[in-house]
């Protein structure tokens, strides 16, 4: 009986040793959101309590602040500030960001209390961020053609979110309307050297594939001002890709440029 027990113990030790060898070198799953090594304790991402609310956006794989700003009609710098982010490159899938301006703080109505019981300062509460409603004046904005050249490709909501205008390297690219530069750089894949202008709370315009950018972020721009020179950055030919976005959504520029 003692010998049988010893053999059973030896078999158990051998099994444990083999189990240890089989796990040697195996890595834990990369997407492990456990807290402090405790499985089942999932970390809550910033802003999760606002998911689905008007004026907020849930980050998707591949998103950047530039893309989120353009898709929501906002400057990426404003989104950075509204969400108190230190690094624009550090956003996470599932994180919820404010993409509409916060409303001003408003005083909370309180019942009358005696001076002896009054606090040192009155509490305040932030109202929910309202979504901007386009006014008739904002919708009546006049856009001019941003370049002279042949139309290569028209607007297609699923395939081409703007117009492609042909030309030669160095041809002038003009601002379609008065506005402010909210982005100038090459940080958005597929657009090359890109300029985004914000015209009001309703409209943005985008100018892509430039050779040279002639303006800087936060610069005020006048309608018809030369802002870039045409090129083929991140494109298969020399062209200007031009978009008009109404509250972040691409619309057919041809419907806005006719008659200008």
UniProtKB/TrEMBL annotation:
Q: Which Gene3D superfamilies match?
A: Glucose Permease (Domain IIA) (2.70.70.10), LysM domain (3.10.350.10)
Species in which this protein is naturally found: Limnohabitans curvus
Q: Which SMART domains match?
A: LysM
- Name of the protein this chain belongs to: Peptidase
Query: At the top level of its lineage, which domain of life is listed?
Result: Bacteria
Family named by the database record: Belongs to the E.coli NlpD/Haemophilus LppB family.
- The signal peptide, as residue positions, is 1-24
The record's Gene Ontology cellular component field reads: cell division site; cell outer membrane
Which UniProt keywords are present, listed alphabetically?
A: Signal
State a single Gene Ontology molecular function: metalloendopeptidase activity
Its organism's taxonomic lineage begins at: Bacteria, Pseudomonadati, Pseudomonadota, Betaproteobacteria, Burkholderiales
- LysM domain: residues covered: 55-99
What PANTHER family does this protein map onto? MUREIN HYDROLASE ACTIVATOR NLPD (PTHR21666:SF263), PEPTIDASE-RELATED (PTHR21666)
């Amino acid at each position: 009986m003692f010998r049988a027990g010893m053999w059973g113990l030896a078999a158990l030790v051998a099994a444990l040793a083999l189990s240890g060898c089989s796990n040697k070198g195996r890595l834990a799953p990369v997407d492990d959101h456990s807290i402090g090594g405790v499985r089942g304790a999932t970390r809550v991402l910033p802003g999760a309590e606002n998911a689905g609310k008007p004026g907020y956006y849930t980050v998707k794989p591949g998103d950047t602040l530039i893309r989120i700003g353009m898709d929501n009609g906002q400057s990426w710098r404003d989104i950075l500030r509204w969400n108190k982010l230190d690094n624009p490159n550090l956003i996470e899938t599932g994180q919820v960001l404010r993409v509409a301006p916060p409303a001003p703080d408003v005083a909370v109505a309180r019942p009358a209390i005696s001076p002896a019981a009054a606090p040192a300062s009155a509490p305040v509460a932030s109202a929910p961020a309202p979504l901007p409603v386009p006014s008739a004046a904002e919708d009546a904005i006049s856009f001019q053609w941003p370049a002279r050249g042949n139309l290569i490709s028209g607007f297609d909501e699923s395939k081409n979110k703007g117009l492609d205008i042909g030309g030669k390297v160095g041809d002038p690219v003009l601002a379609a309307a008065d506005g402010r530069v909210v982005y100038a750089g090459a940080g958005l894949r597929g657009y090359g050297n890109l300029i985004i202008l914000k015209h009001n709370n309703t409209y943005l315009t985008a100018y892509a594939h430039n050779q040279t950018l002639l303006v800087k972020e936060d610069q005020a721009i006048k309608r018809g001002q030369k802002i870039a020179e045409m090129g083929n950055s991140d494109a298969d030919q020399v062209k200007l890709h031009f978009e008009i976005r109404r509250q972040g959504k691409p619309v057919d520029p041809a419907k806005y440029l006719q008659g200008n």
